TrEMBL record:
This is Protein kinase domain-containing protein. Residues 18-288 form the Protein kinase domain. InterPro entries: Kinase-like_dom_sf, Prot_kinase_dom, Ser/Thr_kinase_AS. GO terms for molecular function: ATP binding; protein kinase activity. It comes from the Eukaryota. SUPFAM superfamilies: Protein kinase-like (PK-like).
């Protein structure tokens, strides 16, 4: 859906206080644009979701805006500035502009992968973000590299979680039938893939699986056949070292601790952070921090 089609009555690509700069990407539930706020001059991100064509689109808009509204004071979550659902053809919302997601960084720097200390530092931030949203009773349910983005500032950068279209509250995951089919999702835990209720422990398992993607650049349990992928995924969680041994990732022990988090366990986030801090100090002789170092190569951001 083009921006021009979206604004059938407009003589220029502008809606309310925002003017179009460029189309960024087309996602499963809508289009994402870079826009400029006419009041502040700041660049922001607009997500336009088609209305009514598919019921899931309306649900996605509701769940994302509801979750983000509850999480606005959390530094590791993308800021929501405005949402609008009164237009006939689309819902849209305005968020802060972020520079690049981790999967884009991985692909732009292929065949290089994230260095082990960088992986540990990113995992440290992911645990912080998970704890913050879980404390509010919200599960993201779709953590993956493309949903973690970097906000670049000179010297240091900030990791932020985006795309809350699959987010759910603790009540929804434990008392209502799941509205999400997890079997074909590579980073869902084996328990969730088997339609068990989503728990905070499963977000930690997912973070451990995301770490493997960062370290290897591939997902070793992936298979186009969802049932076979579940089988491989189960084998991986039971014995991650068997899968990782040929690659010498240097983060095998951390991955094992995360992916073998018992289903339904009340997560000790401090213990997870301590494991990451100890591994980081062993590698670098430095203390881990929330400051993510970053520098530019041309127009791209690459983590170090």
């Amino acid at each position: 859906m083009s921006f021009a089609t979206y604004h059938q009555t407009a003589s220029s690509p502008q809606i309310m206080n925002w003017s179009l700069v460029k189309h960024l990407k087309k996602g499963k539930f809508g289009d994402v644009y870079l826009v400029k706020n006419a009041m502040t001059g700041q660049h922001q991100t607009m997500k336009a979701v088609p209305k009514g064509k598919i019921r899931d689109f309306d649900k996605c808009f509701y769940h994302e805006t509801s979750a983000l509204s509850c999480l606005q004071d959390i530094g590791g979550v993308v800021n929501l500035f405005y949402s609008e659902s009164r237009f006939a053809t689309h819902d849209f919302y305005i968020m802060e502009y972020l520079d690049a997601n981790l999967d884009d960084l991985r692909m732009k720097n292929f065949p290089m992968t994230f260095r082990p200390p960088t992986i540990l530092q990113l995992l440290y931030e992911m645990v912080n973000i998970a704890e913050a949203i879980h404390t509010r009773g919200i599960y993201h349910q779709d953590m993956k590299l493309s949903n973690f983005m970097i906000k670049f500032t000179p010297g240091y950068s900030q990791l932020k979680l985006v795309d809350f279209g699959m987010a759910a509250t603790y009540y929804e995951t434990t008392h209502l039938p799941s509205r999400i089919f997890f079997l074909n999702k590579p980073y869902s835990s084996p328990w969730v893939s088997k339609e068990c209720a989503f728990q905070q422990s499963e977000e930690i398992v997912t973070i451990g699986m995301v770490a493997v993607h960062m370290a290897l650049g591939i997902v070793p349990w992936y298979c186009p056949d969802p049932m076979r992928m579940l089988y491989y995924k189960t084998l991986f969680v039971e014995d991650p070292e068997f899968f990782l041994k040929p690659y010498n990732t240097h983060v095998d022990a951390v991955v094992k601790n995360f992916v073998q988090t018992p289903y339904g366990e009340l997560v000790d986030y401090n213990a997870k952070r301590q494991i990451l801090a100890d591994a980081y100090y062993k590698m670098t002789a430095c203390f881990i921090s929330s400051n993510i170092r970053a520098y530019t190569i041309g127009n791209d951001i690459r983590l170090d």
